[in-house]
Amino acid sequence: MPPHVAVRAAAPYRGPGALPPEVPVEITTRLRPVRERRPGRTLAVAACAVLGFGLIGGALAGVWLAASEPGKPVEPVGYTEAKDLWHNAPVDTLFPRTLAGPGAGPGGADRTWTRIVVAPDAPCTPAVLAKGLRATVEPLGCERVLRATYTDATASSVITVGLVFTRADAATQRTLGQDLVVRLGTDVPPALAGTGTVAARFGAPQRAAWWLEAPADLPVVVSAVSGFADGRAVDGGPVPAAEAFGAHRTDATAQSGLGHEAKGITERFVRLLRTAATTAAKENAR
Fold first, then answer.
1. Quick one: how far is CA 273 from the chain centroid?
2. Are 259 and 268 in contact, with CB atoms under 8 Å apart?
């Protein structure tokens, strides 16, 4: 506190019927003399005020016009940063060593997955992308594909997660995810095996259930395909996750919850990517 400021004691309390001082002494100050007005300065201040309001109004109008202009939706936060996550983000951010899935199993059972295989990033080739998905994302500028395989807590099932990064603009991405699974109904993602792991025998015949998501706010397609860790071939072939856990199904894929696994882990990876993209955008804004 500056030494020249005097602190006065508060007025004593005079009972419930007493009124407080009309103007407390503590907040009064010596009046300063009013300077002579100068017309030139007044006009300059007025001009600056008008200019300032004009600039603010123009900026707001620009934002409103950009948001309302047909064909040019406002880009989601982190959308640009998400395009480069495949080489900017650490592998443990994109593919956590352990992934929790509360309520991701049949009947809302909890799931936990552990990463056992990570593949190097790869170009968009038939070896890492199913034919239909590749044909869908190539016109968008398919940038890179990242894959990893996880196993559940009992090591009885395995699941390969794929992250397909594209250069799609926000408007295109918003329409990409609509009915994507329906359009690619027989286009099952490839499995990623791992020598010396429980996924050593995870190949095309072992795929049981799969799922795809193309979130509207990220230039990425996330896929997951699940199967049994014991290497058994699946009768009838793989099916979309929503079909795998249908109420009418009593086969091994349905009873083991492999459909829940594929859909649940896909949804969690979408959330992970969204968080990573938002974090990158905040860091760039500093």
1. 4
2. no
Report how far residue 146's alpha carbon sits from residue 123's, in angstroms, rounded to the nearest whole number: 9
Flag whether pLDDT at 265 surpasses 50: yes
| The pLDDT of residue 247 | 59
Q: What is the pLDDT of residues 219-263, one digit of tens each?
A: 999 999 999 999 999 988 899 988 887 757 778 888 888 998 899
How far apart, in whole angstroms, are the C-alpha atoms of residue 134 and residue 125? 8
DSSP the chain: --TT---PPPPPP--TTPPPPSS-GGG--PPPPPPPP-HHHHHHHHHHHHHHHHHHHHHHHHHHHHHHSTT-PPPPTTHHHHTTHHHHS-HHHHS-SEEEETT-SGGG--EEEEEEEEPPPB-S-TTTS-HHHHHHHGGG-EEEEEEEEEEETTSSEEEEEEEEEE---HHHHHHHTTTHHHHTTT-PPPP---TTSTTTT-SGGGEEEEEEE--TTSSEEEEEEEEETT-PPPTT--EEHHHHT-TT--SHHHHHTHHHHHHHHHHHHHHHHHHHHHHHHHHHH-
User: What's the token pair of residue 211?
Assistant: 């799922």
In contact, 155 and 194? CB cutoff 8 Å: no
Is 115 in contact with 98 (CB distance < 8 Å)? yes
Residue 152's identity, in one-letter code, is D
**CA 264 centroid distance within chain:** 15
pTM, to two decimals = 0.73
Least Cα distance to 158 among 127, 211, 197 occurs for 197
CA atoms within 13 A on the CB side of 276: 24
Beta bridge partners of 160: 149, 225
- What does the pLDDT look like over 22-40, one tens digit per residue? 333 333 333 334 344 455 5
